[in-house]
Amino acid sequence: MNHTDNADARHSLAVGEITQLFEDATFPMTTADVLERYADVEIVYPHESDPLQTVLETSGHETYESRDDLELAIFNGVRRDAVGRPRYSDRGDSPHDTDTTRMQQSF
Predict the structure, then answer these.
(1) pTM
(2) Fewest CB within a 10 Å sphere: which of 16, 24, 25, 98?
(3) 54, HSE (Cβ side, Cα atoms, 13 Å)
(4) What are the pLDDT digits (tens) for 47-74?
C-alpha cells in the first residue's frame, strides 16, 4: 500500500487505527523510509491532527526493527490529548492514591 500515489491527497488515520497502517510493511525501516512511503498520512486526534512526520520527529531518526517498534515510536510521539484525559483511568482506584485504607462505599 503506497500512500504517495496522489501527492496532494492526505490519508487521515485515527490514533486507534495506526496498527493497521503498517500491515504490509517490510522491516527493518528507517525514519526516512517510513516518511517516504507514508508521507501523506495524517494522525487524527479528537480535535486536531498532525502529519506523521511531526509525530515521528519526537523519536529522531531511527531504524525500526519491527512493526511494534514503529508503532511504539508513533504512540510515544502523539499529542497528549490523543490518549484521553491525563491520569484518568476507568479501572478503579487511582494508582496515585497514597492512602492505603479504603472507605466502604454504599450505592
Answers:
(1) 0.64
(2) 98
(3) 11
(4) 788 999 999 988 778 899 999 999 989 8
